[in-house]
Design goal:
The chain is mainly alpha-helical and about 210 residues long. It contains 8 helices and no strands. It has helices at about 5-25, 35-60, 65-95, 100-105, 105-125, 135-140, 150-175, 180-210. Helix 2 packs antiparallel against helix 3, helix 5 (about 105-125) packs across helix 7 and helix 7 (about 150-175) packs antiparallel against helix 8 (about 180-210).
Length: about 210
């Protein structure tokens, strides 16, 4: 069941996603009038609509859609962090293709993993954990703690990383950019890689990591 709190969270995640998306747009030299406002607000509206659609489909088609709507919002938020880090590192190093792209893909991926874990555990799959204090290590790492599922989450996500990086290396190294600049083609490859990894991650998180 989708609540008003879910819509509020989706809107907040949308704004943050838009902010990180602006970072990537800056590095690939894409801008348009009022983009600093339009991108965050536009994505926030889309995420709220996505969560509503997930709830609607969950009620009338299949229950898993309710979780998938929130998972998609969280996934794109994490992806925006991942993209921003990749573009920033690519800009600093000048690397846009080759096997080494897999290495510069890792820092953003790790940041996205930590972000995704917290949102998936506490919002998407609604763990019963009640976080009170980092001082209580049992609450954080113990059975039922905030990070109790992290090892399984990390395993599933690392497999997602291998799929993600593999697709990026394949597309940027062995397939022509189809007329796009190297930086834009890197981002197109990243979109395709994230789509494949998202399908794997959702299945892994739902049936392995956060299975109730």
């Amino acid at each position: 069941m989708i609540t008003k709190k879910d819509y509020l969270i989706a809107g907040e995640i949308g704004i943050l996603t838009g902010i990180f998306a602006l970072v990537s747009l800056f590095f690939i030299n894409i801008s348009f009038p009022y983009d600093k406002v339009a991108v965050p607000l536009g994505i926030a509206v889309l995420w709220v609509l996505g969560v509503w659609l997930g709830g609607f489909l969950g009620k009338h088609v299949a229950p898993f859609f309710t979780q998938f709507g929130k998972f998609a919002a969280t996934g794109f938020f994490s992806a925006s962090i991942d993209f921003a880090a990749l573009n920033f590192i690519s800009y600093l190093t000048g690397i846009t293709a080759g096997v080494v792209v897999g290495w510069i893909n890792i820092p953003g991926f790790l940041l996205a993993v930590l972000n995704g874990y917290v949102w998936n555990k506490l919002w998407v799959f609604k763990s019963q954990t009640r976080f009170r204090s980092l001082i209580d290590l049992n609450l954080v790492w113990g059975k039922g703690g905030v990070f109790s599922d992290f090892p399984k989450f990390l395993l599933v996500t690392v497999i997602g990383l291998l799929l993600n990086s593999g697709v990026i290396i394949l597309l940027t190294t062995y397939i022509s950019g189809l007329g796009f600049t190297a930086q834009i083609w890197l981002n197109i490859a990243k979109v395709a890689a994230n789509a494949l990894a998202m399908i794997w991650n959702f299945a892994g998180y739902k049936f392995i990591v956060f299975r109730k």
